[in-house]
Amino acid sequence: MAAVSMTGIVKKFGAVTAVDGVDLEVADGRFVALLGPSGCGKTTLLRMLSGLEAPSQGRVRIGGKDVTALPPERRNVGFMFQSYALFPHMTVAANLRFPLRMRRGLSRSQEDARIARALDLVRLPDVGQRKPQQLSGGQQQRVALARALIDEPDVLLLDEPLSNLDARLRDEMQLELVELRRQVPITTIMVTHDQHEGLALADDIVVMRAGRIEQQGTPESVYASPATPFVADFLGAANLVPVSVEGGLARWPDGLTTPVDGAPGQHTLMLRQEDIAIVQPGAPAEVELTARIVAAAFRGSSLQLSVEAGGARLRFGAPVQGGYGVGAQVRIGWVRAAARLL
Amino acid sequence: MIGERPFAATVAMLLLLLLVGVFLLAPLAVVAAASLSAGGFLVFPPQGLSLRWYADVWGDPRYVQAAWTSLGLALITVAIAVPLGTAAALSLRRPGALPLRGLWEFLFLSPLVLPAVVLAIGLLILASNLAGGPSKAALVAGHVVIALPYVVRTVTAVLAGVDPATDDAARVMGASAWQRLSMVTLPQAKAGIAAGAVLAFIVSFDDAVLVLFLRAPTLETIPLRIYAGLEFSPDPGVAAVSTCLILLAAVAVGVTDRLLGGKQVVG
Amino acid sequence: MSRSDRTEAALLAAPGVLVLGAVFVLPIAAVLAYGFFRDGVPSLAALDWTSWSRLFADDYYLGLATRTLRLGLVVTLAALLIGYPLAIAIDAAPRRWRTWLVLALLLPLMTSVVVRSFGWLVILGRNGPIVQWLRELDLVDRRFQLAYTETGIAIAMVQVLLPYMVLTLLGVIGQIDRRLLEAARVMGAGWWTALARVTLPLSWPGVVGGSVLVFAVTVGSFITPVLIGGLKLPVLASGIYASAISENDWPMAAVQSVALFAVVLIVLLPYALVTRPARGGVAR
User: Strand order in A238-246's β-sheet?
Assistant: First the structure.
C-alpha cells in the first residue's frame, strides 16, 4: 500500500498533447476515480502510473519513491484492463499464478494457497481449472481483478472496469467492488467515463477535460458545488442557464427574474434536475416560475419533462400521475439555495 | 442461396459455380484418373482401372530418392522460414514500433509476386561465383525466400486476433520481453505459426522453378522428376506421382483450414 | 510506444531482413549487375549494352516479350471476367458451401504447378477430351490440338491464376458492409443495380489488386508456358532459361531477367505505394 504522487505531468504523442500539466496526489488507501469524456487523458494518466507509457515531462512517485524511469515490470502495481486481458491459452489458475511466477520467491504450495485465497476473495472458488472463454463476462471481470490483486501490489489501477458489463451486472459489480474494498483497502485509481460509477465507488473524484484536471474532491462536494459548467453537466444532468445577476436577482434570458444567492455579474445558473419540481397546490416553493411543457417522455416510474421557462429550456422529472401533457402551463419551483451560480 | 435475389441471378451463379468448379479441378481430376490406368499409355479416360502404377512408382528407387530429397529440403525450409517469418510478423504487429514499416512489409511479402525465375538466375549467378556452381545451400536459400511470405501472412493474420492488452498485462505483472513473447504472445499465435509451417512445407515441396535452375545431380526432387517425365511421353507412373502430390496438397489445405478457421490468407 | 518496444521490433525484424537481404536482394542485384555491366562488375567502363541491343533488335526476343505481355493481358482479363462473378457467387453462398468453395480454390493453388500443367497437357492434347469432343462435332480435323498453342497456354494459365484473383476479390468483397447494400435495396435499387452501383465501386481496390497480382505472376510464369507451349512458343521466362542453362549466355539471361523484373515492378510499385495494407497485408 502506498501513496501516489504525479507532479507536472505532460504527455505528448507527436503533435497531440494528451495530458497538459497534471498534478495529482492520492493518499495512501484512498480510492480515486478519474472521470471524464473520451480523449480527456485519463487512461493515458493511468498508463503512465503503471509505466506502460512514459511521461514527456513530470515525475511519478509511488510510496515516496520516484518511479518515473522504472519500466512496468519493475513497479509493483496491479492493473485491470478494460478488455480484462486474460490469457486465453491458460486456465484461470494459471492466469493467477502468472504474476506470482514472475516475482518468484514463492513455493508451489504457497502459490496455490494464494490462488485459492484470491478466488475466494472474488467469490469464484471453483473456476480454477476452466479457461477464460468458458466464463461469463462478469466472472472474467472478477478473475481479472483477482489477478491484479494477487501479488499484493502497492497500487491498484482499474481501466474502465465495468464498462463491458450490461446495466444490471454493472450495479451488482459496483456493490461487489465496494465490499472488496472493505476487505482489501488498497490505494486504488480507477478510470471511467461513467459518472455514476465514479460517484458510487470513489473516495475522491477527479474530473478531467482535454488533458487537464477541472476539479477534484469528494463526490459529495464536487456534485454539490461544481466549479465549472462542464463539471456540473458531467456529474448528473444539470440545467445550465446564462443569467446576469444584480441585487440578489438573476435575470433570465427572457427578462424574468428569480431570487438567487451570489455576486453580481454574468454567470451560469445551475439547477439540478432533482431540485426542480412542479409546484403542488397548497405547497408553494421558495422560488417559482411559470413554465410551458414542450415534451414529455415516459420513464416508467416517472415522466421526464422538457419545459420552457424564463426563455430557457429546463429538464426535470415529474410524477406520472400528474397527467402533464405537451403544451400545458405549469408552475415549477425550487429551493432558493438549489440554484447555484457558476 | 435463395433470398431477395432475382431468380436469374441465382441460376446464373449456381451455373457459374458449377462450371468454374469443374474448370478449376479438371486438370487435377484428369491426372488422378489417368494414374489409375491399367494399360501402359497415358490416356483419358483411362482404359481399365488399376493401382499398379502406384506400386511401380514407389518401388522405383529414383522416385523414392526424389521423395526423400524433396522431404529433406522442405523440412529444412520450414526450420528456417518459420522462425524468421514469425519474428518478422511479430516485428510488424505494433504500428509505430518499426521505422519504415511499409518498406519491411513490402520486403517480407514481395517474393510472392516477384518472378521466381529472376531469383533463380540471381542465385545461380551467386552460387557459381561463390561456390563454383549450384548447391543445396542455394536451393534451400531460394526455398526459404519463396516460403517466408506465407509464414509472415499466416502469423500476422492470427496475431491480428490477439488482444494487445495481454502483452501489457504480462508486462505489468513483471514479465520480461522474452517471457512475454514465449509465454503470452507466441502461444496465442501458435495456430498461425503451424499453418505457416504447413504452407512453407508445401511451397518448398511443390517448387519446380528453383529446382530446375539450380539443378545439381544430387538434387532431384519429385516435381523435377515429373517435369522430366513430361518432356517425353509420360506414362501413367508420372500421373501416379502427380496424384500423390495432389493428395499432399489436399492434406495441407485441410490442415491449414482447420488451424486458421476460415481466415483467408492465400491469394 | 516505449523505447524497449522499438528495440524489440528492430531485433525481431533484423534476422528476416538480413537473410532476405543476402538471398533475395543480393541475387536480384547480381542479376541487375550482369544485365548492365560486363562480367557483372559495376564500373563505368564495364557498361555493356550489347545484350540489350539484341533484346530489342532480334525478332526472337521481341517475339518473346510481346508474347509474354500478350499472355499477361489476356490471362488477367479472363481471370477478372470469370473471377469477379465467381467471387460474388461465393460471397453470396451459404456458409457451408463457402468453405468447400474456398477449399476448391485452394487445392489447385497448393498443388505443384507441374501437376496442373500436366493435367492441362492431357486435356488439351490430341487425345484429350476437349479435342475429341470438338472432333465429334466436326469442328476440327484429326491433327488439331489445343496443346502447343497460345490459346492452350492461356486457358491453362487462367486456371492456374484464377484462385489468386478470386481470393483477392473475396477478401475485399467480404469487407463491404452488408448494410450499405441493404440501404441501397431499401432505397429502391434492384439486385443488379446494387451490384453495379455499390459492390463494384467498393470492390475496386480488389479488382486492381487482383489484376496486378495476376499480371505479375503470369508474366513471370515458366513451367506452364514451357510445358503447354513447348519450344515453339517461348515466353520471357523460358528465354531466360534457354539463355542461362542451354546457351550459357548469362548476360542475355540477365538482360531478359531485368526486363521481366522491370515489367513487374512497373505494374507493382504504383499499386504498392498507393495502397498501404492496413495490417500485414492479409487480404490483398
Answer: A257-259, A249-251, A238-246, A265-272, A340-341
Residue type, A92: V
Torsion angle of alpha carbons B99, B101, B104, B109, nearest 10°?
170
Is C212 found in the same domain as C94?
yes
Question: Tell me: the pLDDT tens digits for B184-197?
Answer: 999 999 999 999 99
Distance in angstroms (rounded) separating the CA atoms of residues C5 and A285 = 63
Domain extent for C1: 1-48
Question: How many other CB atoms are there within 10 angstroms of residue B153's CB atom?
Answer: 28
Residue A65, helix vs strand vs coil: strand
- C281 in any annotated domain: no
A73 and B174 in contact by Cβ < 8 A? yes
Q: Provide, as residue numbers in chain A, all residues whose Cβ is less than 8 Å from the Cβ of C4.
A: 71
Percent of chain B exceeding pLDDT 90 equals: 57
Q: pLDDT band at B266, cuts 50/70/90?
A: very low
Q: For cell 458531467, what's the residue? A: A234
H helix runs in A21-126, sequence order: 42-50, 92-103, 108-121
Pairing of strands A287-298, A329-334: antiparallel
Q: What distance lies between CA B145 and its chain's CA centroid?
A: 12
**What is the C-alpha to C-alpha distance for residues C187 and C202, in angstroms, rounded to an integer?**
18
Tell which of C86, C101, C112, C260 to mutate to test the B interface (max B CBs under 10 Å).
C112
Residues of A in contact with B172 (CB under 8 A): 50-52, 72-73, 75, 77-79
Taking CB atoms and an 8 Å limit, are A54 and C4 in contact across chains?
A: no
Among A87, A133, A160, the residue to mutate for chain B (most B Cβ within 10 A) = A87
| Interstrand relation of A212-217 and A238-246 (parallel, antiparallel or unpaired) | unpaired
pTM of the predicted model as reported, rounded to 2 decimal places? 0.88
Q: Is the domain of C106 the same as that of C194?
A: yes
* Three cell numbers written together for C269: 510499385
Nearest to A155 by CA among A45, A59, A75, A69: A75
Helix H or strand E encompassing B10: helix B7-35
Let me know: does A27 contact A3? Beta carbons within 8 Å.
yes
Claim to verify: residue C31 and residue C78 sit in the same structural domain: no
Q: What is the model's pLDDT at position A91?
A: 95
Rg of chain C over Cα atoms, rounded to whole angstroms, equals: 23
Say which residues have a Cβ less than 8 Å from residue B183's Cβ, sequence separation at least 6.
Answer: A98, B170, B175
Query: Same structural domain for residues C41 and C59?
Result: no
Query: Class of A4-230 per CATH?
Result: alpha beta
> Nearest CA to C147 among C114, C122, C112?
C122
Can you give the CATH number for the domain in which C135 is found?
A: 1.10.3720.10
Query: Distance between CA B160 and CA B152 in Å, rounded?
Result: 12
| CATH of the domain spanning A237-341, picked from 3.40.50.720, 2.60.40.10, 3.30.200.20, 2.40.50.100 | 2.40.50.100
- Grid coordinates representing C121 are 497437357
Same domain, C23 and C55: no
Question: Which residue from B163, B172, B188 is facing A79, i.e. has the nearest CB?
Answer: B172
Q: Which of B30, B71, B63 is nearest to B224 (CA)?
A: B63
Q: What is the pLDDT of residues C86-126, one digit of tens each?
A: 999 998 888 888 888 888 899 999 999 999 999 998 888 87
**Selected residues 2-61 of chain C with any CB under 8 Å from a CB in chain A:** 2, 4
- Which ipTM was obtained for this model? 0.89
Residue A81, chain B, CB below 8 Å: the answer is yes
What are the Cα distances from residue B200, in Å, to A30, A98, A206, B116, B206? 56, 34, 55, 15, 10
Domain boundaries along the sequence of chain B: 69-260
Fold of B69-260: MetI-like fold (1.10.3720)
Locate the domains of chain A by residue range.
4-230, 237-341
